[in-house]
From TrEMBL:
Superkingdom assignment: Eukaryota
Domain Ig-like: from-to ranges: 182-297, 305-397
InterPro entries documented for this protein: Ig-like_dom, Ig-like_dom_sf, Ig-like_fold, Ig/MHC_CS, Ig_C1-set, Ig_sub, Ig_V-set, Immune_Resp_Modulators
Species, as recorded: Rattus norvegicus (Rat)
UniProt name for this protein: TAP binding protein-like
Amino acid sequence: MGWEPSWCLLLCLAVSGAAGTDPPTEERRWQAVDIVLDCFLVTEDKHRGAFGSSEDREKALLVLKQVPVLDDGSLEGFTDFQGSAEARQDSPIIFEASVDLVQIPQAEALLHADCSGKAVTCEIAQYFLQARQEATFEKADWFISNMQVSRGGPSVSIVMKTLRDDEAGAVRHPSLNIPLSPQGTVKTKVEFQVTAETQTLNQLLGSSVSLPCRFSMAPGLDLTGVEWRLQHKGSGQLVYSWKTGQGQAKRKGATLKPEKLLRAGDASLTLPNLTLKDEGNYICQISTSLYQAQQIVPLNILASPKVQLILANKDPLPSLICSIAGYYPLDVVVTWIREELGGIPAQVSGASFSSLRQNMMGTYSISSTVTAEPGPTGATYTCQVAHVSLEEPLTVSMRVLPNTGTGSVPSLPPYSGLGSPGSKSPLALC
């Protein structure tokens, strides 16, 4: 991000120096700043709303002009983008974009990405209106920019319209064939933006989730439709649609609040009672009377395992079965630990596993078995289960004592211990 290394360095130093000293929210004020992003211009990709894969790319700069951001004390002395004194042969094309007509809610994430150790992927491509619409508007060019902050940061798509003031005699860009400003930049105004937090959402089976999607559009544009689609394992389906005031849920219980949609540009979708069929990438597509853009929100469904430790048999050596049931996704790690009284816990090898089972809901079950060797004084066996749905592993334990040598073992009811994080449930086997 940025035009010159010194510009970035000053900003990062300012942010670093202000860390931990943010003024209270009520004392913070809005400040208009220029946000400068290193981008690529995709000159041949005509697909709207997606990062291009074409090799016909050239370096570009996107300058979002005078974007309001909350000043946390780090913007003191912050200067506006000045550009280059003179254009060079290898200079990137510069898009100056006015944001007077729309809101950029994730501006701070874009501005401070470098300083927080994140990167911004930015691509710009020409945006093609439908022929019937284009014929009714003044001569102009449109571009769409897709910006993605790394490590689960926000994704922002903006549609920009070129400004054609004083076009006569203007120098034209060699590949785009559009007039440049006297400063050698492409001057545009942002007329539409769609934003979403793209960090993967991890939700427990049976819970509810709100899938975030927000937009802003210039005055004079009308909202004509909202669609939420689910893509998973190569198949897609419509989840919810809203058109000219009427909403229709294709997935039972899916809701979108019309008042927030029309008043605040909030197209977030709520899904209750999540099942495994709800997992996948959700595409939020916003359509206006002139433009259309979309964002992708990934959703993972998790189901936590239930763990039980069962005594299978007693002679000649006891077998312990650790039953792990009802978990999702598939990967689970089972570790057996043996500890003698006063000894050092040691990992047990040689455990066997049953075949994997999947129930009608789609969750998995498996069991692990070890032969217990109590030793001369007895030993505690612990089954430890790690899974992505758990903040810490589940553990369940059983105390096994040696045979008394009388040739018989007192009758004890089979023990089934339900595991919990960090829990240990001892049982003495005489």
